[in-house]
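Milestone 3.1: sequence recovery, worked example.
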């Protein structure tokens, strides 16, 4: 069996390669063996997160969102049978890669794939759908009529967040880093109420949000990371880590309205006492978005499966339309990781 792994070299850099004749993990009563038909590629391998939760190894699996056909099931499996088409998530602590010919999953991490959804669509929708569902429903708890600011709406996750928020009746504001992204976002159907092109003027985001809300601020902000630096050289250093636009944390605090909810993906966010005081005076709250927590917390398996099923239903009825690039073969996966992931859509391997 072929499988893609990432190996950490002496300098701490990741090197991706295809290994032949890889042994599968042993089957248990609740295991499901899947012939992989498609696997979404993560933008990057979470080496730091794996270290933080004590799962770091010198050899890391690659690819976690898998769509395929069941070839073997454990004795206690009841949710699927051989020949079923399923979609599943490989947990962070799993030894096998999703980018492989065969993958072994656990029953509580898979759901049946709707017939109307292709393997490629299903694999690409899982990661972005779970992240969007977690941010909007479980953390932000948005309601119809509320105003939501989604940072970087033109990327794969932002697009799904916009579609879900609009479906649930929210008014959506989003940011674009170029006129090309603005055209793309305005072409979505339904489209966000306002696309804010951010660039040289740091105040454009705050000004636009206050204009759209009559000076009251937005009800919810969902970012994709924030800038925490004031000096220009420190901001340039932050841009070296990611090419995406990241607003300053003070900008987001200024955009937030009374009783607002700020959902951030910045794991090392630091709030100074004046920042905390501003959140306190607004009666606002701060939540951290880490979608992989669902596969690490066994007590929440029921909710996780509900999210997977609901995301697949929304993909089937075209409420959610995942954005993905031209599918890659298994042989091209290592090269795809070596390149700068500048594509707007999700990259996906297809067999």
């Amino acid at each position: 069996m072929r499988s893609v792994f990432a190996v950490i070299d002496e300098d701490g850099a990741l090197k991706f390669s295809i290994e032949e004749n890889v042994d599968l993990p042993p089957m248990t009563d609740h295991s499901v063996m899947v012939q992989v038909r498609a696997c979404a590629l993560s933008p990057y391998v979470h080496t730091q997160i794996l270290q933080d939760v004590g799962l770091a190894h010198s050899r890391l699996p690659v690819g976690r969102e898998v769509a395929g056909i069941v070839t073997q099931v454990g004795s206690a499996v009841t949710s699927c049978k051989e020949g079923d088409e399923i979609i599943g998530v490989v947990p962070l602590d799993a030894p096998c890669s999703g980018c492989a010919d065969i993958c072994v999953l656990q029953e509580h991490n898979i759901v049946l794939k709707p017939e109307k959804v292709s393997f490629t669509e299903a694999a690409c929708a899982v990661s972005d759908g779970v992240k969007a569902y977690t941010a909007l429903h479980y953390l932000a708890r948005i309601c119809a009529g509320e105003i939501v600011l989604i940072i970087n709406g033109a990327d794969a996750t932002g697009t799904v967040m916009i579609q879900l928020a609009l479906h649930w009746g929210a008014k959506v504001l989003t940011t674009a880093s170029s006129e090309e992204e603005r055209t793309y976002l305005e072409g979505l159907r339904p489209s966000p109420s306002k696309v804010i092109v951010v660039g040289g003027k740091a105040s454009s985001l705050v000004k636009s949000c206050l204009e759209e809300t009559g000076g009251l601020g937005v009800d919810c902000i969902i970012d994709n990371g924030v800038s925490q630096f004031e000096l220009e050289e420190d901001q340039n250093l932050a841009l070296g880590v990611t090419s995406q636009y990241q607003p300053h944390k003070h900008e987001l605090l200024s955009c937030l309205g009374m009783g607002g909810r700020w959902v951030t993906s910045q794991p090392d966010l630091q709030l100074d006492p004046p920042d905390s005081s501003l959140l306190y005076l607004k009666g606002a709250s701060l939540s951290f978005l880490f979608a992989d927590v669902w596969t690490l917390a066994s007590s929440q398996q029921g909710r996780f499966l509900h999210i997977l099923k609901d995301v697949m239903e929304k993909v089937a009825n075209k409420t959610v339309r995942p954005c993905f690039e031209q599918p890659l073969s298994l042989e091209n996966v290592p090269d795809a990781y070596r390149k700068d992931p500048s594509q707007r859509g999700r990259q996906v391997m297809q067999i």
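The chain has a mean pLDDT of 86. The chain is about 30% helix and 25% strand.
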